[in-house]
Amino acid sequence: ELFASHTMHFRFLPYVDGRVVSYEVNYIKPEPEIYKALLEKYSLCADECVFIDDNENNIKGAREMGIHAVLYKTREQVIDEVERIIKENR
Predict the structure, then answer these.
(1) pTM score, two decimals?
(2) How far is the CA of 54 from the CAs of 70, 72, 73, 87, in angstroms?
(3) CB-count exposure of residue 83 (10 Å: 0-12, 13-18, 19+)
């Protein structure tokens, strides 16, 4: 698998339940279709998801789909924002 050769750069992968890879679905962020593909693949509700990225355009794309999104700046900032989102949406 093409993606497998790049996984050493994504140390977080063992901690996630699934993924959608752009070359597999023929869409890239921030195209709405890539977010739709993820939501459909795992039967997710957008408002129950959190998307984290370091690119503002990708964050905007996720938010336009109704997904909570956090712009990565620091690890601590992401943790704080995700905890806030979870608390506000219980």
Answers:
(1) 0.84
(2) 8, 5, 7, 23
(3) exposed
Which single residue is written with the structure tokens 């977010």? Answer: 35
Between CA 24 and CA 37 the distance in angstroms is 10
How many Cβ atoms sit within 10 Å of the Cβ of residue 9? 7
Name, in order, each residue with C-beta under 8 angstroms of 33's C-beta and a sequence gap of 6 or more.
25, 27
For tokens 């964050």, the residue is 59
Average pLDDT across each block of 10 residues of the chain; the chain has 90 residues. List them in order.
Answer: 60 76 92 97 95 96 97 94 95
